[in-house]
């Protein structure tokens, strides 16, 4: 039941974001190191949100791998 509530809240937030994103059509310049592009403000926010989620996922995966492999090298050298 709790999982269903989380899904409903998440879908409602996504729908609210799509609604506000479709209303706001303002264009802004995004100046990066090498290029400059014109994107909608909503697209820039989505780009940075996805980039932050990807970076967080990578950090979590590296930390998880480090925890799982913590004693792996020690175990393999002790058995010989």
From TrEMBL:
<keyword id="KW-0472">Membrane</keyword>
<feature type="transmembrane region" description="Helical">
    <location>
        <begin position="44"/>
        <end position="65"/>
    </location>
</feature>
<keyword id="KW-0812">Transmembrane</keyword>
<keyword id="KW-1133">Transmembrane helix</keyword>
<protein>
    <recommendedName>
        <fullName>Lipopolysaccharide assembly protein A domain-containing protein</fullName>
    </recommendedName>
</protein>
């Amino acid at each position: 039941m709790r999982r269903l509530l989380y899904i409903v809240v998440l879908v409602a937030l996504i729908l609210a974001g799509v609604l506000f994103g479709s209303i706001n059509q303002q264009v802004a310049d995004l100046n990066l190191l090498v290029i400059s592009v014109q994107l909608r403000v909503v697209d820039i926010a989505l780009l940075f949100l996805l980039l932050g989620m990807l970076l967080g996922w990578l950090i979590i995966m590296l930390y998880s791998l480090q925890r799982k492999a913590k004693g792996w090298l020690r175990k393999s050298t002790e058995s010989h």
